[in-house]
Queue: 4 jobs
Job 1
Amino acid sequence: MPGARTSAHPIFTVQPREPLDERRVEHLSALAAEVRRLNEATVHTALPEEELTELTAQVRALTDRLDAARRAFPPVSGDGYTTPGEGMLQQIASPVTGELNPIAPPCRIEFLEDGSVRTEFTLNFLYEGPPGLAHGGVSAMVLDQLLGLAANNNGTPGLTASLELRYRRPTPLGQRLTAEARIDRIEGRKAYAVGRILNAEGKVTIEATAMFVMPMLG
Amino acid sequence: MPGARTSAHPIFTVQPREPLDERRVEHLSALAAEVRRLNEATVHTALPEEELTELTAQVRALTDRLDAARRAFPPVSGDGYTTPGEGMLQQIASPVTGELNPIAPPCRIEFLEDGSVRTEFTLNFLYEGPPGLAHGGVSAMVLDQLLGLAANNNGTPGLTASLELRYRRPTPLGQRLTAEARIDRIEGRKAYAVGRILNAEGKVTIEATAMFVMPMLG
């Protein structure tokens, strides 16, 4: 298949994905943004049961229409997967950063000149753990992605081999959070990254370290 | 407010939540199940742009109808929050286990007699990290929840203080996964839990340890 590359390492068999042009990405992003709002409305609604039944049927009908033309894999931006490093940046349907993925907050990433990465984001009640607070696992998910992107931005992309999180104070919902990550050191095929989440007052809520192993491409 | 309890520890201020009866939970679960399918259809659709624009407007209209009667916080089952331990089990809108939360897989938990907890679940492309594989952060989220439930099931519920993950082999999408967790030991107010995810062949893909600190309730 043209453009498809496979590697000796079975986990990095690169599947061909349909790359989208900008216009199509915009349309799908607009749809995903509305579905994201629908997700939130679903956990907050207090509508009477008769109306819920009616709306449930309407959602089903919408899904059936979208599925009438269905691709096997989520699309990517750019040229499709070529290398794992480029692939990560092209994942417009990522559960953390993907504008096209309705379950992503989504976290928009800034790639800084010093090689570090940064994102500002807000979590709503879809991401709740303890009452009024972010789910510890949701924060872990954001940090895993961000530390992975730091490794990527450093030119040393890899798969997560270990991830360690220290929860210092609660991470609130509904307020602007900042997450940042950078590469600490490289040892052979291992990239060590560090990162953290800060609350709106700039206080650290969670610290993270991760080790990524760079794949050997065939 | 009747049933509301607050604690000296500000993070465990227990917010009053509206408890739902079983019938209402069923209706909201049915809605969430359809919205979950819509999320998946959104990342897979190959519909032409004109249709996407039309469907986007329809999703917006549905959201506006659901939001016409909106509660400030997601609902819970049972009697509403009384203790953190009970509260965790009543979180029917949890991002991991919540039937009412469209972004949750959702993982249905079994509480075993030996005190351990277990779930069988499948992740679709909404949860993709590397091509064809589960996002490492999504797996971390599932494990954080499961280890927390093990602490809860042990009668020692708490907030995540640390979480460590070792990724042993890839965690595939689209196949039945099993996750299990149990309490390893208790030291004062600290509960140490261990857990793992297994692939369909029963091989460990990720190992996790976590420490939970039990709150002091006022």
Job 2
Amino acid sequence: MEYTHFFKKALAASRAAAVLSPDQVNAVLREVAAQAREKTDFLLEANAQDLARMEAADPAYDRLKLTPARLQDLAQDLEKVASLTSPLGQVLLQKSLPNGLSLSKVRVPLGVVGVIYEARPNVTFDVFSLCLKTGNACLLKGGSNAHFSNQAIVSLLHQVLERQGLDAGLVTLLPPEREATQALLQAVGYVDVLIPRGSQGLIDYVRQQAKVPVIETGAGIVHTYFDVSADLEMGRQVILNAKTRRVSVCNALDCLLVHEHRVIDLPLLAAPLAEAGVEVFADAPAFAALQGEYPAALLHPATEEHFGTEFLALKIAIKTVADLPAALDHISLHSSKHSEAILAEDPLAIETFLNSVDAAAVYANASTAFTDGAQFGLGAEIGISTQKLHARGPMGLEELTSYKWIVRGNGQTRS
Amino acid sequence: MEYTHFFKKALAASRAAAVLSPDQVNAVLREVAAQAREKTDFLLEANAQDLARMEAADPAYDRLKLTPARLQDLAQDLEKVASLTSPLGQVLLQKSLPNGLSLSKVRVPLGVVGVIYEARPNVTFDVFSLCLKTGNACLLKGGSNAHFSNQAIVSLLHQVLERQGLDAGLVTLLPPEREATQALLQAVGYVDVLIPRGSQGLIDYVRQQAKVPVIETGAGIVHTYFDVSADLEMGRQVILNAKTRRVSVCNALDCLLVHEHRVIDLPLLAAPLAEAGVEVFADAPAFAALQGEYPAALLHPATEEHFGTEFLALKIAIKTVADLPAALDHISLHSSKHSEAILAEDPLAIETFLNSVDAAAVYANASTAFTDGAQFGLGAEIGISTQKLHARGPMGLEELTSYKWIVRGNGQTRS
């Protein structure tokens, strides 16, 4: 099959999208919200067709499932995006040059944003709203097992766009087959950025195959370092929260580093984890300290592969380190540069850690669970970037924009 | 050959580079400048070995050649970079969240910057100075026919770094063979960004092969639209300058679009081009207007492939358009989104053009020759990005940085 016509439609629509007024955009978003509430039956029926093809025991089943309450939440999210200030047109820099040229750097849309994701129909609404708000057209490649849901959602989006006199090419759902993904990855000249959302396998595949610019999101191999100066009670709360609040998310804690002089505190520090049923993979000193104190069924000796693993489960690795530099070295070696934390009372240790650790978010004395667009006050989130180019950490509206240089003259030539 | 040890050295050096003080960095840059002046003989001898392997008639010969005057200029450039304010540590955003967390977004180095370039030894100095200034380690893959020059320059850089007690891994010259390029393109986990500088062929190759994030630079297919309202004398000056100031650069004019009501002015508008010896490829109405007025030897009918060509020569395409929207359509179809200009007195035409055209730099009533880091006041330039992710147009120091989120708490957990 030939996919270029989809890409051409998106490119053409993106030209028009760049000059839409905020009022036009917000009217669309509010009408989509209203429709998401009104067309509940239509959307749930399509969703039921997808659900019927999946085992209820599949971990993806819950993410695939739409309910009236979830549609209500999605409608609220759409209205929230409508209420945000558009970053477009923001003047990032403005100056007059000695030769009389007026120079300004102005925020503009990226153009065409491609998103590859798994069976999560809520993402279809999210990506559309964030892209439209930022003047971008979007090309969606959703999971094939959510295709009925996505088709229904996109048909609803198209109806609203057409009623508002806008180009349906602003949102395109690509066919569910794998070849469409391949074509999207190679759509040089059509796609300004591609954002894969999903498993590490998907992200690795995209990195291997993409010929268009990509923003990597995803994997978080997250550490928290319990310094010699750390407060024990704070450590108990923060480590419990970072590990167990939601184990399936990328900011969840994977590896606790403990200063060797505080290994003695491990039984108390880890007690809340035991209550929560967390399996521990401990290095020799930590294992010795926990043995007899931590439930035997949940305590295992660590092997090398437990360090640098993103567990996404009630599991944690514990490693003893001689000092802060050793903690920094371990993090540098194993971190995926997502979220890293220190627990310490010593200001010098805190500053050294915050300055030295190379990660999207670095924390002192707080749970890494806060790495999230809404928590950071971005208003919305299209993903969490784990690369350093363009956007780092939670990506909101600004991260879906580029800029251009506008130069106004009265006949200037360069000597 | 195995190249991973080069990448590991650069990665290790980048950790140290991120926490260097501005004084340490500037001391290195000033000493390198002093050495570039003092070791003239050493550098010119190495350069002579490269020159001896190239025909003097080769267009690359002049770019390869170092002279005492050029080394003097390079030394001044190094001192200029030393005098600029470092963007590192700049606080891009700072707020206190309702839960008491203090959140700041702070500029940090990218990490390891790879640059692939052709036989231009001056780039070796430039990339080193801009990367060191921004706390990055750099991996250099220069043209093989400049390898003696590059080796000499990098040995000089290493001596200075060692004298200043810094890690020689801050700058690494990769071996001249093609396999090193291939390894660099695939150095996932080591290279944070790769910037290819050179021919379209090189850039296409990088886009096809790279598994690490890339910033594309280069090709400029540049238009200037002469509106129905444009001033003729201004047009003569600006078009001449944009086309002929330096034909080999990416911001040079490639295609003049003329409003059909102003085709009558073409003989006067193009007269300065004739004097400069510019070959014209004109569409039928423009050809008819120029016939008998423009030197016959320099006037040819345009064929389709002349539109969308980057000439890099004393050649220009001329196309007649019915109106501004037709000009915008032509630009949208053929532009490489580098630099685009309108010549007009009508304010509405100007605003429509500046808002609608999707390019790194959009001009009203000025020569596109100004698209340049120094002209835009960036202080320095590592390349001109033609993509929309991360950096667009001239890239200076800020564009060689990323940011991280620093979160300070007193035990906050997320509910």
Job 3
Amino acid sequence: MSVTAPQGFVAAGVAAGLKSTGRPDVAVVVNRGPLKVGAAVFTSNRAKANPVIWSQQVIRDGTVEAIVLNAGGANCFTGAFGFQTTHETAERAAELLAVSAGDILVCSTGLIGSGDEVFRAKVLAGTEQAIAQLSAEGAEAASEAIMTTDSRPKRVVAAGDAWTIGGMAKGAGMLAPGLATMLVVLTTDAVLTPEEADAHLRHATRVSFDRLDSDGCMSTNDQVSLLVSGASGVTPDPDEFRTALTEACIALAEQLQADAEGASHDIRIVVENAASEDDAVVVGRSVARNNLFKAAIFGNDPNWGRVLAAIGTTDAAFDPYDVDVWMNGVRVCTAGGPDRPREEVDLTPRATHVLIDLKAGDASAIILTNDLTHDYVHENSAYSS
Amino acid sequence: MSVTAPQGFVAAGVAAGLKSTGRPDVAVVVNRGPLKVGAAVFTSNRAKANPVIWSQQVIRDGTVEAIVLNAGGANCFTGAFGFQTTHETAERAAELLAVSAGDILVCSTGLIGSGDEVFRAKVLAGTEQAIAQLSAEGAEAASEAIMTTDSRPKRVVAAGDAWTIGGMAKGAGMLAPGLATMLVVLTTDAVLTPEEADAHLRHATRVSFDRLDSDGCMSTNDQVSLLVSGASGVTPDPDEFRTALTEACIALAEQLQADAEGASHDIRIVVENAASEDDAVVVGRSVARNNLFKAAIFGNDPNWGRVLAAIGTTDAAFDPYDVDVWMNGVRVCTAGGPDRPREEVDLTPRATHVLIDLKAGDASAIILTNDLTHDYVHENSAYSS
């Protein structure tokens, strides 16, 4: 169900020939209302794809009727022609749905620099075809249509007090969001104003997708959208809704991590006792982006020296010679020296836990990352993506 | 010859049993004078090895008698015992050379966290043994003794106007300097004051080792030292000396790049027409640290979209939609869109050239990096280093 689990939404996913495999590649999600509230956050990469540039305008008034998504081409760095493709996609959807093109979000994913006449024709045809097939049962196909190197679709449903949140996501590489990440569509039938939707979404993405750093590479096409139908007629308790939305985003972020390209370990880096949450994030991210650390985890090697060498490059407040590092429950480093023997650490499970105690305050953060593997190198060198 | 090419220097390299292979692992370089001038730059990583902490004190007065270097153990995060090991190493060398321990630089390289009683005993014995074998012919053995995962020693000799510069270096991984990098010893018989030596060395390292970013991982043990004997009796032209020292450092940096762990491409990223040199460096480094770009080059894929996605994460001054990207002489991207077909780019040679024209000013910088390969993952996951 995912995005159609809340009342007031229909969806579809169709094969428009953008993927050479013939798999579904265009998805549409439509909000039937009564509310047509939308919020979205976008990649902070200055190199932005045309659909991002378009959607940033659409979201300004907080009104969204529908979202059109395609895989098989990022429509990024495709010039004026590419922007026109996005514009025409919104126009075509608006015409068929009898709404304004200015209320249609567009997302694309695939190879940067691809977006020619053939691409445009296929996206437009796919949009028409998907809109003709819209239904409450279309969520599954929609979540499959946005997949690129993903090996499986990512979906979530969270039930609140007489309201529901649904969501779908795609992403397996170039997975290191700045402000948002990847393509994610969230829906709810709770009653929210545009301002509430925006605030809840920003909070939820900040502590979920923004804490996922699989490979240090920030995408040009990231977009997380929340569509609000209000069809339940229920105004949720703000804290309860925010918590449910955050949990839904974390669940999707963990699905993205678990399906990261070539990864053999899902690494949860917990930074504790930092002077600030920002410090905790900076420290965790420095480890998540350290190729030597990531390669060591692939080799089941609890090489804590690489953790300290990574965090020493940050300007976070802590004494490098008074930091504790735990790996899978074993304290391998304390007070500037080795602690338990590295042989005690079992890194064979996929789930890997690194705890860094900075002893500098009471803030904390969790960063999710993956290891650096032969399969990652293979997937990202063997063909363009 | 390398470090003993200038007059006034002797060196030695011996096997002290620190390397399991039985290869040489302790080196000593001694300045016979008449000047005993020294300058050094160190890693900017806050996680610093004990020899770095020690040597930062030694260099304060600009006087250096000798430098002791070992491979087979980084003596980093080894606590008070480890610092005492470095101190004792300097004391032992000072005693045998009849000089002050406060004028002995110490460098170590190897696994972080290793530096126990056995390590100390071997380093001290190796220091004694090396000092007993000092000679003008010892430079070759010294350059071999500091190797870790290096497949070959790195040496340079530059002849000036009646003065000479010599140098040796080691480094193959954790190769992304902050202020200096790796272990490098430079020698000269030119006449220089401590202030001149320091200024020349800082200039030379800033545009050589500091522009090398093989794997984004900054070491805890980096140290570049310049020992000045003045034995030629010649005071060099400052510009001429600075140029020669810079060229010598670039030659060593290129040798380090060419021997980077597992690399199959030496990538020279030239950033042109930047608003400032800092901007050019930031832009070049963002590409050098992008795993997707590096994996693409390994796969001989001129994936310029990954270049733009990387530079878009920086705050350098440029318009992302008006940047030209050239790969091995072919302009693959211009004005926010594709240019020449990617098929025209031949990435099979090891030497790879990426030119990024920011069209934002007249500053430029060159960053040296390597690709991300299966061999890199293998070398850094199969065993601790």
Job 4
Amino acid sequence: MEAFDQYIEKHRKSYLEELRRFCRQPSISNTGKGMQAMAEMVAERLSGLGAEPRLITVGDSYPYVYAEIGEGRRTLLIYNHYDVQPAHREDGWAHDPFDPVIQNGRLYARGVADNKANLLFRIQSVEAYLAVYGRLPLRVRFLIEGEEEIGSPHLPRFVESYADLIQADGCIWESGRTGHNGNPVLHLGLRGILYVELSIQADQRGMHSSWANIVENPALPLEERLRQALQTLMDEEGRPALNGLETPPLSQEDLALLETIPFDPATVQVEHGVTLRPGLSGVEALRRVLFEPSCNICGLGAGYTGPGIKTVIPNRAVAKVDFRLPFGLTPDEVEIHLRRHLQAHGFEEIQIRRLAALHPARFSPNAAIVRAVREAVRTVYGVEPTIYPLMPASGPMYTLCQVQDIPAVTFGTGYPGDNTHAANENIRLKDYFRALRCFGRILDRFASLED
Amino acid sequence: MEAFDQYIEKHRKSYLEELRRFCRQPSISNTGKGMQAMAEMVAERLSGLGAEPRLITVGDSYPYVYAEIGEGRRTLLIYNHYDVQPAHREDGWAHDPFDPVIQNGRLYARGVADNKANLLFRIQSVEAYLAVYGRLPLRVRFLIEGEEEIGSPHLPRFVESYADLIQADGCIWESGRTGHNGNPVLHLGLRGILYVELSIQADQRGMHSSWANIVENPALPLEERLRQALQTLMDEEGRPALNGLETPPLSQEDLALLETIPFDPATVQVEHGVTLRPGLSGVEALRRVLFEPSCNICGLGAGYTGPGIKTVIPNRAVAKVDFRLPFGLTPDEVEIHLRRHLQAHGFEEIQIRRLAALHPARFSPNAAIVRAVREAVRTVYGVEPTIYPLMPASGPMYTLCQVQDIPAVTFGTGYPGDNTHAANENIRLKDYFRALRCFGRILDRFASLED
């Protein structure tokens, strides 16, 4: 596929410029900022392939962008999302998160790693394939949603209403990255998630802060109460302390699989700039991340802590907590266990509100789409990819793929220092163009592989 | 002024509809939402008077809306703001804060009490005066800014650049309300404010929450540390515990003034639905609110606590704190005392960021504009207004009026249950139309009163 690689090399500059343009457009599903504009930008890009993209809304969803192109024995579903996490410069960004900056071979911008680079290189790859070879050897279906970062709330209804649009023999999932050793990592599934808001209300109204001299301020006691509840949710090692969330024993097969994955806690610690819980071996750390549920405090506080000023005596404290769920545990189960736990610990006054819920998903390494990606990776990267049974993060893979029995695998431009969901999110440009070249091979291999 | 009152009665429905329209337009200076549209809506309304409004920006300010109309011996400056505080339904609103609802003779909407009703009835009053009497007996200057709720950061530069536009013999200030006994309250000044953000950073990066099984989550310790610092800022009675913020002794005149103000803590407690610090007499409570500095926690928290979901292991805790300053204390002084205090208590790692600062202001009760308002109130309300030396809240009165020696006084539609800055903000419609009628008399009296 030399001609394909040459074509990409020739379009390097314009492809990169396009990526910057995508990153410049805010698309924050949490607040709605820029969502419609982003959906239209994606659809326009797909038109450029000669496809006839559709913007489909389900109820009051943000638009799903759908397009289909090519013909052949096999059909590939490409799932991405055009929405990104919120970002404020004061979160620690070195620059405006929506003003992409290239530095040291990296492109920094909110959403570039999750998921605009992956979204775009796949489109560019199809374009390059068409330009060089005149036709695709298979049918490609793009499904690009705008609600992944808020838990894909409308996807079940979308799948129900448009089941015929997504039928496929395999799916390339939105994310994907290389590991610490530089080898591509393929995930064959992902963890589920239950994201809840816990809140506690004072028995007084919120009030203008000019009364502070004589009105009791409940911020500290409210927040203290919430903290006490949060502390009961985890044991000393940070594991969920809820009854019912104990980890089932691992199969011999999964234990063996764990041993094949290179994972060095010290490297994670340095590359991510975080502190790991002490005394974890690589295998044990990995076992926890892939096969244990987690409980994480995404935030807790009382009153106003957003940007700028609000002058009020607060009357409410809130915590945002997410539970990641290994294969076999459902969000409904966890919510029931959480309610029972708070009751049992005397926190009856704490309200639980479910903000997102996704099932875990997992597929076999023997599916044709997985084999196609492995072969393509060997060709371009010259190494064997690392196979993760599932990825520590979450997504609607169960709804979109597991229910329809469409094997899914990740392949993309992320790397361990990409700061996904955090400040200074970035990708390495070399990863971008290597993934772009590899994707042409994936199309090729998947079209021709035996079952 | 019977014809004037009849004119208002005849236009009651359209005036009210106009108020709803103003409230329907979000205008949140904190986020920028709807600001330009709101400025244009205000300017268009002023055009309706036959004035030629200007939208003036200073640096990257939101537009100041300025208009001048009428001629006469005296000039009246009318200062208002078209921006409002942030509002989310989940803060406790019974409905969308930007979908005004009329219930039990009240209009509920974010910003109606602070400050859209006051903004609009003054314009409508001038309109009615012109319609009934053909001309105004004085020159009226409207200055309506869009940054009051974020501390009027550009007003000093505006005043410097456009000093000629604001020269006047008296000023009607943006706010104003009735007291618990139903009598209008006139404020002759207001407290200053220093609003700071205190923050503390973990020595790890923020990170995607899918790593929670093996990464330490610093949310609780960070927030605990911030809580410890906040606890040192106040004594057991909630008074600022900083050196240098002791209250200076009150003059005999001010003590006597305090005795003239009807103020019942029990009523405040019930009407506002809050808990007062125990054991405060009316005079003592009032003394604290008007003549003591305050320290209030507007919010504290770690990580993400905003609407919707964000899945991250936090690395920063933040507190928003405001100090209200009695006449004689400046924001600069308080910030110095705060820095020294945190140093002295071992909280060197806590960052202080100033988000807003306003000087206190205070004027004489003998100014012509004050006498004009008192006389007008007597005529329309049939009672003597209560004179507050200053109001517990803050605003840029020092910058706009004190520096230029333009006596200012409040007169408006607020009342003790209006929930300013909180959920379910509202005004009573009877207050609105009574204020509208009264304002015609204010114009009249101010034009003709002796010095």
